[in-house]
Amino acid sequence: xxxxxxxxxxxxxxxxxxxxxxxxxxxxxxxxxxxxxxxxxxxxxxxxxxxxxxxxxxxxxxxxxxxxxxxxxxxxxxxxxxxxxxxxxxxxxxxxxxxxxxxxxxxxxxxxxxxxxxxxxxxxxxxxxxxxxxxxxxxxxxxxxxxxxxxxxxxxxxxxxxxxxxxxxxxxxxxxxxxxxxxxxxxxxxxxxxxxxxxxxxxxxxxxx
Length: 209
Description:
The protein is of the alpha+beta class and about 210 residues long. It contains 3 helices and 12 strands; from the N terminus they run H-E-H-E-E-E-H-E-E-E-E-E-E-E-E. The protein has helices spanning about 15-25, 60-75, 110-125, and strands spanning about 35-40, 80, 95-100, 105-110, 125-135, 140-145, 150-155, 160-165, 170-175, 185, 190-195, 200-205. Strand 5 and strand 6 (about 140-145) form a beta hairpin. Helix 2 (about 60-75) runs parallel beside helix 3 (about 110-125). The radius of gyration is 18 Å and the shape is globular.
């Protein structure tokens, strides 16, 4: 998962490699923008490797896409590119499937296309404020803001969890594909939603953490 791959993501108890990279630049008195040119997870492969198995689904690719963008956003990455828009050869990395054996011909979109589009709609113009985690519960989250609203993104890693939060009037909850989610009231102004690998967007003008 993005939380446990140990490359750049800091939420598995390891030091972030971005911290190491920034420390190196500071030691050289030269701070540069960071560009990530290619990232992907391949459906049908073993957690993003090119060793094809049935373990990694298109749905997980779609979930990991969003979560990886959030981590890079938190680390201040200037540009982050997904590999790729269209399948290359047999790697199945594209937001779109290739139409048969014809190079460059777009077939049907994968779920990752929908999650990427929804993420763009939800987060355009937002500023990252914080990441938070409960390692024991395997629940992760991020808070982003603009001048008029807060968005909390919440997900779990490989498990399903009920997450309880304080709600306010006018809040809306959207799943990773862009569909509305109806929270369950638990009383006392609190609500709960079930989260899993797929992040949910909890939008409000005043949602409490």
